[in-house]
Amino acid sequence: MTLPRGGRTTGVFVFVARASFRKNLAYVGAHMANNAGSFLFGLIYIALWHAASRGRTLGPFHAHELINYIALSQAVLWVSVFLPSGLDMAQQIRTGSVAMEMARPVPYVPRMLAAGVGEAFYNLVFRSGPLVIAFTFLGVFPWEYFAAGKSGLLAIAIVMALLTGVLFQYLIGLSAFWTVETRWARRLFQGLSIFLSGQLLPIPLMPHALQRFLTWSPFQTLVSLPVSAWLGVERPAAWMAGAMWLVILYLAAWALTRRAQRRLEVQGG
């Protein structure tokens, strides 16, 4: 792979995303084996919710819709939550190579986000995709759920979830400027995301006050929005909140990066 000629910034971002995607292709076999564990956890969650629902309607979900929700949320996690910790920025900061990376003519923030998008798209193809296929052939997802309308809304929501997850990971990586180690931030993010995103307990089944709060939180975009959009039970406020938080997180990434650059200049001269 060669760098794009002509110094076109967009070409550089595409190059970075493609490189990030392609570097993972060496581990497809290992990731497919790991998918078996994720598939098993999905089956366990499905069995638990099937027993809890007993064929009844819970909140806005019919029994089969609740099973669909749990299965698809297991696949969506790989796109929005289970991404490389901090986009591997902590390693750059520990080795000092971040100084050179930030000095490159292409802006650091969108370049790192492009790398994260490449990672997330790889997960979409080789982690989420196989899970959806496996659940579909087991009869968990009815084929009619892949109609154009439902798939279109799902695609838009997946993009929003992917970008939100990448921005969160960028901020986690950026925290290494102040803490050096980012494992605590990654664990905190994953712990909050599993619950607040509606993966373990769908947001429409939570108490009303908590529903209203989480509908306007950035975490609901990670899982609840894509799955609810696919099932047709999402709220208009969820789309508005998702778009709003994308802007807020992106602006926060730029603002904190500038502070980190000033800290780097003070410490490194």
Write a structural description.
The chain is mainly alpha-helical. It contains twelve helices and no strands. Helix content is 73%, strand content 0%. The longest helix is centred in the C-terminal third of the chain and has 33 residues, at 236-268. The chain has one domain.
Question: Which structural traits does this protein have?
Answer:
269 residues; mainly alpha; 12 helices; 73% helix; 0% strand
Brief overview, please?
This protein is mostly helical and 269 residues long. Helices cover 73% and strands 0% of the residues. It has one domain (5-268).
Write the layout of secondary structure elements.
Blueprint lengths: L8 H15 L4 H26 L9 H18 L8 H7 L2 H6 L4 H30 L10 H27 L1 H4 L3 H14 L11 H8 L8 H8 L4 H33 L1
Helix pairs in contact: 1-6, 2-3, 2-6, 3-6, 3-11, 6-7, 7-11, 7-12
Shape: globular
Helix content: over 70%
- What is the succession of H and E elements? HHHHHHHHHHHH
Got a strand count?
A: 0
Structural class comes to: mainly alpha
Mean pLDDT: 88
> What does the radius of gyration come to?
20 Å
Distance between the termini: 35 Å
Strand percentage, roughly?
under 5%
Uncertain runs are 1-6
How many distinct folded domains? Answer: 1
Count of alpha and pi helical runs: 12
Q: The biggest beta sheet, please? A: none
